[in-house]
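In response to reviewer comment 3 from the previous cycle, which asked for concrete evidence that the modeling workflow produces usable outputs, we include below a single protein chain processed end to end. The sequence was submitted unchanged, and the resulting structure tokens are shown without manual editing.
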Amino acid sequence: MMRNGFNVYMHWLLKASFRPESKIVELRSYFRVRERLSDYAAAHIQHMQKALTFMNVQLNLVVSDITGVTGMKIIRAIVDGMKNPGTLAEYRDPRCKASKEMIKKALTGNYQAEHMIALKQALAMFDAYQIRIHECDDEIENVLAQLSVNKPIPDEPLPKPKHKTKQPNQLNFDVRKSIYQLVGNDIT
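The workflow returned the following structure tokens.
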């Protein structure tokens, strides 16, 4: 780089910077793309919530996460045309803390066509981003496997996980096992 006829590289005026190996750069890029996709999906969760609110369907008051098992079963049933609160309440997962009666009351609303369309489109976009996130996860898993080639197998077995429940935005493969193989330690 020349500045006023002066080569700054040649005279050591720029500090050297660390450049990780290409597989680490690739891995970091996949994580960045995945994070962006998760942000986009989150916007569509908000759109689903807004459509439900406009229909006076208070699903968020009876389930802690509308993208959890119970919430998604109910939303998919609503998008498929089910409007009966009693039938929708039957989609309650046994782990859900709210009773079927509470869910039934929360699902009594006015299922207007314009809000149904908004819910359907938001769900479709959320699902599309979930597919792309899964594709990123596949690439992340492949890169971690490539990084682990020629690494010694750890002497100790992988310890049991501290969290047994699935965390939000968790990778869709056993990342603990991959990282343990790569670094030889449970850093999670």
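DSSP finds six helices and two strands in the chain. We consider this sufficient to address the reviewer's concern, and the full set will be provided in the supplementary archive.
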